[in-house]
Structures are given as C-alpha cells and as structure tokens.
Design a protein that fits this description.
5 helices; about 220 residues; about 0% strand
Amino acid sequence: MSFGDPNNPYGQPPQQPPSAAPGYGYPQQSPPPPGVPPQQGYGYPQQPAYPGYPGANMMGPQSMPGLLTTARVFLFIISAVQILAGLAWLYVAAFVNDVTDAADDLSTSSDDPFSAIGEGGDMAAGVLVFLALIALGLAALSITLGVKFGKGGQGIRITTVIYGALGTIVGLLGLFVGLDSGMASAVIFPLLWVIFGAIITAAPVVPSGTAWFARPRY
C-alpha cells in the first residue's frame, strides 16, 4: 500500500492548508472592493474636528479696535469742551442781560445812549443763548455717539463719520484764521480740533472699524 494513493481508504488523509483563526472581539472584515479605500479600525470613520464651533469666523471682532477706542475718548473730550463752552456762553448771556436791564432802567428816552445799549444788549444776549444751546446740543450728540460705539450699527457709524468730517472742516477754518493772525496761541486749539476730527472721521471708515459696526448682534 502506498500512503500516497488518494484512493486508498487506509492512507493518510490529505492535509488542508492552515486557516487563520478568528480573533476575539469583532468579526474579521472582508477586504474592501477595488476602488474603495481601506477603513482604519472599527466603527465609524473619523470626522475632521471643527477649529471652533460652526460660524465662529462670522462673529466679527469681539473687542473694540484701538482706533475706535481712541475716537471714543476724543468724543468724550470734545463733549466736555462743548459743555464748558455752552455754560460759559450762558453765563456771559446772563451778564449781558443784567447790563441791558440796568441800561433800560437808566434810559429816559429812546434817543439817549442807554437805550441803544439796552437794545444791543438784548440782541447779544439772544445770540449768546443760541450759541450756548448749540454747544450743549453738540455735547449731547458727542456723548451719545461715544456711548453707542459699543452696540451701535451702521447708523452710528455714518453719523460719526459726518460729525467728524464737519468738525474737521470747522477746525481747518479756525486753523487758517489762527495762521493768518500770526499768533501761536490761536493755532494750537484749532490744530487739536483738526486732529481729533480726522481721527473720529477715519476710525469708522478703516476696515477694522467697518467690521466692528457690521458685526452681528444678539
């Protein structure tokens, strides 16, 4: 007998190639079909993580830019000057009114000098009161714009630009008058006014200021 004969019932059975024993845990996965990339590990494929929560890059700047902060401080300084000017003009108007009343008391006819002083004093007092009201109104506007920088939108931005541009023009006119007078003291104040107005005008226009006023609010 030959053990090599496959038809011999007493021969050694043919040996089978060893098969890989299944491991413990999850069942073995079959190889992926052609064209499909192999999966790494078990479970769902790994998802790329967000750099932040969705829409984080659309929130805009979270803190006020430095140039806007400077413009805000300048608005408050300007408002203080306007308040002092308004109060000063009101005081002068009251003083002129007292002088006018005293001139009216001394006047005996419409032709004497006291009558002319009284009429001119009434007109001057009215003009001074009008200027004082304008100064106090502009001071209220300066404070409002400065306060609204934190939560204001495009309306505050446009109003600030116009307000700063008008202030710059007024400062330039005063600067030309001061330069023409030849007095150094007459140049310093208009020059500071021009600088303040230029910064207030430019701060909402630069990209950082535009992004600040255009940011979403919740």
